[in-house]
Amino acid sequence: MRVFHFRTFGVGTIHHAFIRDVTIMETAAPTAAPPLETSSPSSLAASASQAASDALDEYITASGCLVAGSSRGAAVRRLVWGAHPTSGDRIDVLQLTSPRGGTAAITTAGARLLYLREPGSGVNVILTPPSLAAVAADGHYLGALVGRTANRVRGAVVRVGDVDYPLDANDGGASLHGGRIGFSRRLWTVASADVGVSGDGEQAEAWVTLRRHSGDGEGGHPGGVSVAVTYTLGPGGFRVAAATVNDGGAGPAVVNLTHHAYWVLATGGGGAPVSVLKDIRLVSSCTRLVMTDAACVATGELGDSPAGLNLTGDGPLGVAADCFLVGPPPPVGKGVSTAARPVVPGAPGHTGGGAAAAATALSTAALPAPASLAAPVIAPSGTDHGGLQLLAALTSVATGRRLRVWSDQPGFQLYTANGFDMAVDGYDRHGAVCVEASAVLGTEEATCVLQEGETRVQTTVYEVLPPSGG
């Protein structure tokens, strides 16, 4: 069973989610539009995120220290990026290289993914901040590992047993993504043993593990936990595997992590991202909808949901941006009849999520105690994705580029960058989309509590397929 949480911003905003136990049926990528790499290479070079990734990738390749693998295959390089503008702490950046030439960069500031570049073309498929100073100032969680509790917790209070714990409220009356100083604003560490290359030849994978301890009371959260997140780049895509252990001694702990990359599947003239509200076709395997209120907070109720979701607004599908689609998306140029389910008329953008298990399921695994957790925390699984289920498949109508999201989590949040303002923070509103796999929103008390000695493992794979991909 899968759940999808969907939120929209606007007057009378509603939040939702889905649960489903059927297989995703993807439609063929559109063939009318030429591939992005060949149709507008100058536009890609002009985009701010592409230019930032070009510069940083070249810098790390030239100046970084090779700490695992070889210069001709899968490899890990490490570089001191600089001092944090506020704390003065040393900030490192690590570059993962796949055998086919794709690269990813991760920083110890917020355990953030800074860029993800396709093999061959070098196309960067996520939003990339232009500098370390921009990372420090970022309030949009670009590429960050988000926690200790992802998304909005109603009333900034979580109940464990019969005890209420007030959390740090940073979004109206709710606690969002861990509060004002969540995991995205914390310093993470990478020991010399926490990098490596696994496998051989074209199947080799490069990985790095980042760690931190979150003490009892951090952001108001009960219990102390140690977190180890392993990022892996290989032929199967970009893998995020986070293991959280309740250290013991402080009672039950609450934790719900997610990854917050902003995916850019198309850019237009001048390098500006194409609005996802006019471009992205999304198919989800979710069958239930997580209901939300006007403040985008999950109510805990689950409603019926469609099998497919259209984000195209007044784009090629000719469907209003406030509609869900039941069943597969219609052919390009065709409208929607009674299959459309209105949500919020005129709502500018979407926020929501989905799941692959029962709403009360807790994904746990028996792992060693924190002191003996050796990297990689989660062994790389290659292209079979280790039995993960396909939560969502997104396709750019403009380019045919696709994003598949595989996970062991029971839900995901969909966010279409509604809060961006080019004049304020340099990013286009609706220019990217987040797919945040996590526990079903509104069920934190039932699904996110770790007793002393327990471990929770959350694994998600993001697989990007270029227009000519399989």
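The record above closes out task 2.4. Task 2.5 opens with a second protein, given below.
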Amino acid sequence: MSTTVVTAPSRRAILDLYAATLRSSRAFSSYNFREYFVGRTREVFRGMQTESDPARLRTMYADARAELGVLRRSAIVNQLYGGPKLAVEVHAPAQEDTQQA
């Protein structure tokens, strides 16, 4: 009779994956895609943070690693075919207050 012990990924491995996923999410040139993937990344890793079952955490980690590869490829394609900046992305220079004497 063999017992299989499922070990969860280390905290460092999860944090490294989180940082890589956020980095890839921020690489999108399209504002809507970028904001969506940054938010989704935070949501997925918050779920991992609250998970206590090692087997489930290992599965979530493996899924997140697979999604990172897809995210990296998608970000590259988005950078190649990115469109013009949206109005919410354009940073207008700060206007100085002119005081009249």
